[in-house]
Amino acid sequence: MRVLIAEDERVLADVVADGLRRETMAVDVVYDGDAALERAMTNDYDVIVLDRDLPAVHGDEVCRRLVAERLPARIIMLTAAGDLRSKVEGLTLGADDYLPKPFDFPELVARLRALARRTPLAVPPVLARAGITLDPARREVFREGRYVSLSPKEFAVLEVLLRANGNVVSAEDLLEKAWDENISYFTNSVRVTVMTLRKKLGAPAVIETVTGSGYRL
Predict the structure, then answer these.
(1) Chain segment 62-74, per-residue pLDDT in tens
(2) Which of 23, 66, 73, 152 has the fewest Cβ atoms nearer than 10 Å?
(3) What's the CATH fold of domain 127-216?
């Protein structure tokens, strides 16, 4: 899952981002409305965590513009105003969910995963293919009933491959979906991560390299 956090409280934004990365999500962070619009229009996100009181461009206006563009990303609004009227206003603007501050981090994670399942390319809560099952909520992977311990990045790559449902995923798409924007497109991170993932999943190998195209599970 790729997430954009638009939050002007920098400490909060960075803490939440670090927590979501530990949950195997790829996370980009911006601190004002202008940057939120620029990133959302440039990158493909599953969910956008949008603070309602952003500087530069107010969060309400950011939400209006993103909805008008018909982007597939789901929007969850964060705000200090948790009264019913404020929630109704946020949802009326086009947000898919509304979470008042302060919030419990596990609740945010659960809401993000629920929203991601509602994207146009919705996926089941538990993914399964070729004897492999992956539970995003529990962060567990099994192969033929055997538990497989994966690093957060290996887990994210496997999740992207499972979501592709047998289609080829390019290295560029893996970088886009499993890493954040700070990764270099000239890195060999994808190749190394796929190599270690193959070893951990064991024989027979289930991740196929499609020469010149990418990888397929």
Answers:
(1) 999 998 888 889 9
(2) 152
(3) Arc Repressor Mutant, subunit A (1.10.10)
